[in-house]
Amino acid sequence: MKALSTDEHLRRGSYRRDRHGPKVPVDDRGRLLHGLPPAAQQIAAALFDAFNWNPAMLIVLRAFALSCDRVERLQSAGTVNVGRLYDELRVLVDLLHVLNLDAYEPPAAPSAS
User: What are phi and psi of 29, to 5 degrees?
Assistant: First the structure.
């Protein structure tokens, strides 16, 4: 399936500035990733490269990546603190919603012919 142009998204009413707007300058990528733990860096980098972000949403994206890292650490702890894990999962879901990634469906993998 071919990606739609910005004009086509505008015509269909499916235009979203965070996905179809101008690309964020590359130096913002460095600021986004600076100081993040390795797992959070991987998540943030993958999402940064997959979508168009405005500067304000980069702050939310960074918080999302850090939350993912905290959830992983809480789940992999010897004894899981269910209360803290629940609280962090709520934060994660809220951030997912703000980023509008809860509605995202990745493209289907190409079939092997």
Answer: -65, -45
Domain range for residue 58?
12-98
Euclidean distance between CA atoms 95 and 62, whole angstroms: 10
pLDDT in tens, 17-63: 666 665 655 578 888 999 999 999 999 999 999 888 888 899 999 99
Does residue 59 belong to any structural domain of this protein? yes
Q: How many domains does the chain have?
A: 1
3-state SS record for 48-104: HHHCCCCHHHHHHHHHHHHHHHHHHHHHHCCCCCHHHHHHHHHHHHHHHHHCCCCCC
Handedness of CA 80, 81, 83, 87 (dihedral sign): negative
| Per-residue pLDDT reduced to its tens digit, 56-113 | 899 999 999 999 999 999 999 889 899 999 999 999 999 999 998 877 766 666 666 5
pTM, two decimal places: 0.70
